[in-house]
Amino acid sequence: MLSGRGSNFLAISEGIAQGRIANTEIAVVISNRGDAPGIAAARSAGLVTEVIEPRGRPRADHDAEIIASLQAHQVELVCLAGYMRLLSAQFVRAFPQRILNIHPSLLPAFPGLDAQGQAFAYGVTVSGCTVHFVDEELDHGVIVLQKAVPVLPGDDADTLAARILEQEHVAYIEAIARVLSGEYRVDGRRYVARSDGN
Ligand code: GRF
Fold this sequence. Notes:
The protein is α/β, with parallel strands linked by helices. The chain has 2 domains: 1-95, Formyl transferase, N-terminal domain (Rossmann fold, 3-Layer(aba) Sandwich); 102-198, Formyl transferase, N-terminal domain (Rossmann fold, 3-Layer(aba) Sandwich), CATH 3.40.50. It has 6 helices and 8 strands; from the N terminus they run αβαβαβαβαββαββ. Strands 3-4-5-6 form a 4-stranded mixed sheet. Strands 1-2 form a two-stranded parallel sheet. A hairpin with a 2-residue loop joins strand 7 and strand 8 (190-193). Helix 1 crosses helix 6 and helix 5 crosses helix 6 (157-181). It starts with 6 loop residues before the first helix and ends in a 5-residue tail after the last strand. Bound molecules: 5-O-phosphono-beta-D-ribofuranosylamine.
């Protein structure tokens, strides 16, 4: 699911094509905006796409239409890739521990909008990205994977965002492959990779 540029969606799509995410297909790409470049890219790639706009409806009604589409397409894992709307509790409950999001900071630092700008303004020397399960709080669910990215001398918020974005594309593919492998358990807030005898 996306709302904009769609570079993370394209990275995931490439990851599948290259076999880095095995035995997987993209069942449907959903945008809440008809003008999102990402949905145009999905269409050009020959994927099934749906534009489901809120059109002033209450969030629950909009989400119900999206849930119905995901179910009709037999989606097993929902990946938010720059989807710029909060999900209702009803949405989260329809796909328990089956919704992933990518966020451009090392959570729990800098949740919310413009995480890269927030990190830069705060003066941190390391930031990064986080792939996490979606729960009912913003940028909050169990963390599957993080990648650290240094803030370099001469950076501004844009150069930092670009360096983080490169790592997002790697991280999302890795995280999806891990989750689809099923080789993990969740212990409280902790994602624990399964090793022998575990
Ligand atoms: C990414 O920075 C992602 O972390 C955030 O929204 C941005 C989406 O970029 N959630 P793109 O549309 O995938 O290029």
